[in-house]
Amino acid sequence: MKMDAETGLFPAIVQDASTGTVLMLGYMNAETLELTRTTGWVTFWSRSRQEIWVKGATSGNRLALVAMHEDCDRDALLVLARPEGPTCHNGTTSCFAPYEGVPGAGVAFLVELQDLLVSRKREMPEGSYTSKLFARGVDKIAQKVGEEAVETVIAAKNPGTDELRYEAADLLFHLLVLLAERGMRIEDLVLELKSRHPQSKD
Question: I need a labelling partner for 50 at 20 to 30 A (CA). Which of 33, 42, 94, 133 fits?
Answer without folding.
Answer: 94
